[in-house]
Amino acid sequence: MWTPIVLLCLTTNLTDCLAIGGPAAASKEACMESAQEVGIPYLNKKYPLKVVRSYRCIMAPRNYKKENANYKSRPEQIAKRVARNKARRMATKAGLVKKGDGKDVDHKNGNPLDNRKSNLRVQKASTNRSFPRNKKAGKA
């Protein structure tokens, strides 16, 4: 996520300045647009005696603890991870893959809970991870 930072100054030179963050944006371009279209006019109205000197967009640090708590620890995500690990163990026992070989066990229909032998295949990791993750993409 990108966060716009607007620099407000009491004078026209860069002394007595205040940095104010704005709402987060998904891309740097969206962040810059947000700062130009929303942030600067809002701040000029809110702080009429100050002068907006500049604005920048910075990348906000990721909060991995929060991500893990909100997503990776959900019961459905745990079940999918367990099923993917089980598929890998099945392929290892069958001699199809081994640790460090650069191969993934691919679920043909994209459902990691479906571990039927007919639904599993071994692919290079780069091939298996290259399709877009959206509803229209599907899997070949």
Overview of this protein structure:
The chain has 140 residues and is α+β, with helices and mostly antiparallel strands. It has two domains: 2-59; 72-128, no CATH class. 36% of the residues lie in helices and 23% in strands. It has helices at residues 28-46, 64-72, 75-93, 125-128, and strands spanning 2-9, 17-21, 51-59, 103-107, 120-124. Strands 2-1-3 form a three-stranded antiparallel beta sheet. The two termini are 31 Å apart.
Summarize the structure.
36% of the residues lie in helices and 23% in strands. The chain is of the alpha+beta class and 140 residues long.
The largest beta-sheet arranges its strands as 2-1-3
* Rounded average pLDDT: 76
Count of discrete alpha- or pi-helical segments spanning 4 or more residues: 4
The percent range for strand residues is 15-25%
Total number of strands: 5
The radius of gyration computed from the alpha-carbon positions, rounded to a whole number of angstroms, is: 24 Å
Shape: elongated
* Number of structurally distinct domains: 2
Give the biggest beta sheet.
3 strands, antiparallel
Task: Give the helix/strand class.
Answer: alpha+beta
Helix fraction bin: 25-40%
Question: What string, H for helix and E for strand, traces the elements in order?
Answer: EEHEHHEEH
User: How far is the first residue's CA from the last residue's CA?
Assistant: 31 Å
